[in-house]
Amino acid sequence: MGIASHFGVVLNVPSIGVAKSLLYGRYSEPNPKSYTPLYSRDSDEQLGWVIRRGYGKDLLFISPGHRVSLETSLRIVINFLRNGWEIPTFLAHKVLQRERRKRIKQP
Fold first, then answer.
1. Considering its fold, how many domains does the chain have in total?
2. Do 4 and 66 meet the contact criterion of CB atoms below 8 Å apart?
3. What percent of the chain shows pLDDT beyond 70?
4. What b/e readout covers 52-87, taking b as 16+ CB neighbours within 10 angstroms?
5. Domain containing 81 — which CATH number?
6. Residue 63, SS3?
């Protein structure tokens, strides 16, 4: 169980996993501004999606967390990206970088 699923179960809220690196599975490389299914290494069970946001862009690995289907998790993340919204993964990264810079500047 990933952190999104754990969070969703504990709080009983729908959740979606979004990662910037592959944690488990296999996939075919998606074209720019496209997506492909993410499968289990051992079977043809679909676990999630792999999205390439654009040309030369890094991949996003999407998985349903809790109370969200495969199709809904993909649709929600794509809507975030189309509307120019930040994915929480990127927001968390920005906050972390800002906090690191603050700590480095302190004597």
1. 1
2. yes
3. 95
4. bbeeeeebbbbbbbbebebeebbebbbeebeeeeeb
5. 3.30.2170.10
6. strand
